[in-house]
């Protein structure tokens, strides 16, 4: 008997019953003697019209009307802004309280950046393991609340410590800044995989690409807006509270943003139950090993993670190389290298917006391949256009646009194809690998440019991106789940 599966109702339909025995029950020697013809061929079954799937609704609207996603997105806005303005706050505190007038701020800031980076390298994978064991909602709430409390503790701590001498003749107050920064960064390592693991819990799979596009767009806008508007915002609020006789206005902006994010996420409903979490019986390192084994056995997820690591590495290297690019380009000062990075961010924002509107049913691996080829072309163009500012700016916009075609689909692929109980481990490993990928190029790109030249290094980055794109295409074409990738709305549970 023909059966048709209706994915909407998750029911198995059959020919409508007429109250009479079916042909399979009337044919054969066991038929009733009253039947005049028992040997005749059974009547053909009525044709059943195929059940057609409704088209997946495109664009951002299905995501924006999702109340839980909106709560999480608003929490992300406040949390991301706080992350970026936090660094601006720390630099302002260093400048006003610790740096001598004739002293460079670079040494102080470098120490802060090291304190911010070490937890990412040390705890990224471990944090992901515990995210799988704990309630993701409460990880999101508590990490924001604790980060807010740490920032708000800075004024009394600095007042108590002041310029008292500490270890290695460094003021004790600066050690307080390093310690608070280390703790804030450590909490961020738990927040990041919990946030990525929660998105698939509250967003249906056909709309994951739109959700990740909005997530990426918000992150970019927070990056640009936080660094651009952070200093004037802190000055305005700090000046206002100073007139009221309170000098903690700047800390209130950052700590309050974290606290608002935590309060918003308190109302989040993820639908997560204890059955969805890892049991926690095994050792932490065993769970990390399990995550690595999962990546080893699932090529699509592993390839998506490799693509993201390559993407982060290239942009970390570019953050160093654009300084040299600004130095050799006519019509721009070396100190204005930020304009080059900003144009890349504009390209990513435009591409992510378009991708979230029309890209739900486009094959993930093809988007990544086209993005890789686009990045390679733009990097190659930059290598040969160091005499034209406007061409370089256009190429940076194209570079950012192509990068979004890699970042958004690959992040969505990891979310779609990773089981719920494994997401924390996988995203923890991704967070760990991404931070290493961000750190190494920062140290090596300048050295490579010194020895080989800007043009050679840019062409080398283009070659690396091409290899990543070809790898993604090959893995997708040889994977048995390529049909799922081509139509993500048909995906079953990961």
UniProtKB/TrEMBL annotation:
Residues 12-46 have a biased composition (Low complexity). It is found in: Cell membrane. It holds the Pfam family MFS_1. InterPro entries: MFS (IPR011701), MFS_dom (IPR020846), MFS_trans_sf (IPR036259). Gene3D superfamilies: MFS general substrate transporter like domains. CDD domains: MFS_MefA_like (cd06173). The chain crosses the membrane at residues 71-95, 107-131, 138-160, 172-192, 213-230, 250-268, 304-325, 337-355, 367-384, 390-408, 454-476. Signal peptide: none annotated. One of its GO terms (molecular function) is transmembrane transporter activity. It is a multi-pass membrane protein. Residues 68-480 form the Major facilitator superfamily (MFS) profile domain. Residues 1-46 are annotated as: Disordered. It comes from the Bacteria. One of its GO terms (cellular component) is plasma membrane. Keywords: Cell membrane, Membrane, Transmembrane, Transmembrane helix, Transport. This is Major facilitator superfamily transporter.
């Amino acid at each position: 008997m023909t059966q048709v599966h209706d994915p909407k109702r998750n029911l198995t339909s059959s020919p409508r019953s007429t109250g009479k025995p079916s042909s399979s029950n009337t044919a054969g020697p066991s038929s009733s003697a009253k039947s005049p013809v028992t040997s005749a061929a059974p009547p053909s079954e009525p044709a059943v019209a195929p059940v057609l799937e409704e088209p997946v609704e495109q664009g951002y609207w299905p995501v924006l009307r999702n109340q839980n996603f909106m709560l999480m997105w608003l929490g992300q806005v406040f949390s991301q802004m706080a992350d970026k303005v936090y660094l601006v706050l720390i630099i302002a505190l260093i400048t006003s309280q610790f740096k001598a007038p004739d002293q460079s701020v670079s040494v102080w800031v470098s120490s802060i950046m090291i304190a911010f980076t070490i937890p990412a390298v040390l705890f990224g994978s471990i944090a992901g393991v515990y995210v799988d064991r704990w309630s993701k909602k409460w990880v999101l709430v508590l990490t924001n609340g604790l980060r807010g409390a740490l920032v708000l503790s800075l004024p009394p701590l600095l007042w108590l410590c002041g310029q008292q001498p500490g270890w290695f003749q460094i003021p004790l107050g600066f050690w307080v800044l390093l310690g608070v920064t280390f703790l804030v960064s450590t909490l961020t390592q738990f927040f990041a995989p919990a946030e990525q693991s929660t998105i698939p819990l509250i967003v249906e799979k056909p709309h994951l690409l739109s959700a990740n596009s909005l997530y990426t767009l918000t992150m970019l806008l927070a990056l640009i807006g936080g660094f651009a508007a952070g200093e004037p915002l802190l000055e305005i609020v700090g000046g206002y509270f100073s007139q009221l006789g309170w000098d903690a206005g700047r800390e209130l902006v950052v700590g309050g943003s974290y606290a608002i994010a935590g309060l918003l996420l308190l109302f989040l409903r993820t639908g997560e139950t204890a059955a969805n979490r890892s049991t926690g019986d095994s050792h932490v390192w065993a769970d990390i090993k399990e995550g690595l084994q999962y990546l080893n056995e699932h090529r699509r997820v592993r390839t998506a993670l490799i693509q993201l690591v390559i993407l982060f590495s290239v942009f970390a290297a570019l953050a160093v190389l654009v300084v040299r690019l600004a130095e050799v380009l006519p019509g721009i000062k070396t100190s204005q290298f930020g304009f080059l990075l900003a144009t890349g961010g504009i390209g990513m924002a435009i591409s992510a917006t378009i991708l979230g509107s029309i890209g739900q049913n486009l094959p993930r691996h093809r988007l990544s391949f086209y993005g890789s080829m686009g990045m390679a072309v733009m990097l190659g163009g930059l290598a040969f256009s160091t005499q034209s500012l406007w061409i370089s700016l256009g190429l940076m916009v194209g570079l950012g646009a192509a990068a979004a075609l890699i970042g958004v689909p690959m992040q969505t692929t990891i979310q779609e194809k990773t089981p719920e109980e494994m997401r924390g481990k996988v995203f923890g490993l991704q967070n760990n690998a991404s931070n290493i990928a961000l750190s190494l190029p920062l140290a090596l790109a300048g050295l490579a440019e010194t020895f080989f030249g800007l043009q050679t290094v840019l062409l080398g980055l283009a070659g690396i991106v091409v290899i990543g794109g070809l790898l993604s295409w090959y893995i997708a074409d040889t994977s048995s789940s390529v049909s799922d990738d081509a139509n993500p709305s048909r995906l079953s549970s990961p």
